Q: What sequence folds into this?
């Protein structure tokens, strides 16, 4: 269950910390979120193009060591845009528990990877 009071407490502290010297190091995350919000349209005719624009500013947020989930998502969106769109529709369905949504997204992504890019190792 989401504890709004606890969230508000941490939000106040985060804003305080952010404005006292962390903005330079953290602003790229907010810019990436803004880029996503300004470009995300689940009903877009060209899902792959929309996804690419939405994730354009994600830089290291979707890259970790030798893993490139952004590239994998874009490859899925190229190969099977409607299946990829369905994964995101399910992921953003707030009527369901968020942990269930994340698990379903991960499992669905793995099915796509095994089906369309079985040799991919850095997803």
A:
């Amino acid at each position: 269950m989401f504890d709004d009071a606890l969230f508000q407490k941490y939000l106040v502290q985060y804003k305080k910390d952010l404005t006292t010297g962390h903005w330079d190091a953290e602003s790229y995350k907010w810019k990436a979120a803004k880029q996503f919000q300004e470009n995300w349209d689940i009903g877009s005719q060209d899902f792959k193009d929309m996804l690419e624009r939405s994730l354009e500013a994600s830089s290291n947020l979707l890259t970790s060591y030798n893993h490139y989930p952004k590239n994998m998502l874009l490859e899925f969106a190229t190969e099977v845009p409607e299946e990829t769109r369905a994964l995101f529709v399910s992921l953003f369905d707030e009527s369901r528990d968020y942990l269930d949504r994340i698990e379903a997204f991960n499992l669905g992504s793995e099915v796509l990877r095994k089906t369309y890019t079985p040799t991919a190792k850095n997803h």
